[in-house]
Structures are given as C-alpha cells and as structure tokens.
Design brief:
Elements (H helix, E strand, L loop, with lengths): L2 H45 L3 H14 L5 H34 L3 H14 L5 H15 L13 E8 L2 H13 L6 E4 L4 E9 L2 H14 L5 E4 L4
Antiparallel strand pairs: 1-3, 1-4, 2-3
Helix pairs in contact: 1-2, 2-3, 3-4, 4-5
C-alpha cells in the first residue's frame, strides 16, 4: 500500500472519530448537560420555595429523561405542598365564615360552615367545639310563641325561612323599621314566615300588598293564619 493510500485511510479514520464525537455530543453529552442544568436550577428554586418555577423546570427535566425518577419525585413533593396549602386556605375560609355567622347569631348557617371545616380537616377540634356550642344554644332556645293579634288573621308575608335564626334577623329588622311584624310558624312546611302587617279581612291585606311588594319584597304575598 502506498503512502498516499495510508494517508487517506488515516484521514477517513480521523473524520469518523470526529463524527462520532459530534454525534456523542449532540445525542448524549448535550442532553445530559441540559438535564443537569434543569435539575440544578429546579433544585435552587425548590430550596428557595419558588415552587411554581421549580415544578416547571422539573417537568422539563423529566421530558428530557422520562426514565429518571428524581424529577418526578420532586414534582410529587411540590404537588403535596400545594395540596396542603389549599387545605389550610379552605379550612381558614370556612372557619372565618362560621365565626362571622356565629357572631351574627345565624347559628344553623354557622354550623354548616363549621361542618365543612371539619370535612376539610377532621383533626381540628375548634369547629367541633363550635358545633357542640351551637347545638347547646339551639337546644336551650325558646320556641317561637305566636303573638296574639285578635282577629287580624290576614298577613302580608315578606319572607319565609327554614331556620329560625334567619327569620329572626328579618323580623328584628322589620321591628326596627316600625312595622308590627310577626313570626308565623308554618309547621306543615317546616318554615317560619315573617309578616309586614296583619289585617282583619282579605280586602285590606290585598289593598296594602302592592306597597309591601314595592318597598319591601316584590314577591310578598298574603297568608291567612289564625292564631290560636
């Protein structure tokens, strides 16, 4: 073999070596470096508690190397942190709602909010204690005593409620406005009605109904109820 032939073979080998090196860089070394860079940046954000950015970078790293378990474990950890934060946020919102309703003496609605808080975090004792307190208050509450109204048996109704506490809020508001309001238990419906006025006959009730519908409740209606 001539010297020129040997030189050509050596040149071909050198080209192949360079080509393999280039291919190795693009298909092995470069992706590996990009993966390590993404993991490094993700870890920095994770330590600094910048979890949204950390999760984005871990997802990028996982797409580069789907078989790697580390970025997936970190993503799962971040999701757990987000879930815990949302749990605390939702719990605190329900507690605040329950406390506000409790202070307004809307006990049934407050109890519902506290029950939702218990469902979010069953290990907390505060909402359980509040529910117990509400049950005691409601157990000791005197039942509605119909007020005698003589022969005033036709009533303009401006609200009907399932819970007594809600009915009492409107009832007290009506009294403050100067109305001779009454609370009428509607046992057959499990509701409590609030009146804006009572009349001896249906004609007077109907004559005053438009004024109540315009100034108080557009859905106000006339109810016959005889106090016994």
């Amino acid at each position: 073999m001539s010297i020129s032939g040997k030189n050509q073979i050596l040149l071909l080998v050198a080209v192949l070596v360079v080509l393999v090196a280039v291919l190795a860089y693009f298909f092995v070394l470069r992706p590996n470096n990009a993966y390590k860079s993404a993991i490094s940046k993700a870890d920095e954000n994770y330590v600094s508690q910048n979890y949204p950015e950390a999760k984005k970078l871990y997802n990028q790293a996982s797409e580069m190397k789907p078989d790697e378990g580390y970025p997936l474990s970190r993503i799962h950890s971040i999701d757990s942190i987000f879930d815990a934060r949302n749990k605390v946020k939702n719990y605190n919102q329900k507690i605040a709602e329950g406390d506000n309703l409790f202070n307004l003496k809307e006990y049934e609605n407050a109890r519902g909010a506290y029950f939702e808080a218990v469902n979010i975090d069953p290990d907390k004792s505060y909402p359980v204690d509040q529910i117990r307190k509400i049950d005691e208050l409601l157990a000791n509450r005197e039942p509605i005593k119909p007020k005698p109204s003589g022969d005033l048996n036709y009533h303009i109704i401006v609200g009907s409620f399932e819970f007594q506490s809600n009915a009492e809020i409107l009832y007290n508001n009506m009294l403050e406005q100067g109305f001779r309001s009454l609370l009428i238990p509607r046992d057959e419906l499990g509701m409590i009605a609030v009146t804006a006025g009572s009349y001896p006959d249906i004609h007077q009730a109907w004559n005053n109904l438009p004024q109540a519908q315009e100034g108080l409740d557009e859905e106000a209606w006339v109810l016959y109820h005889e106090f016994r």
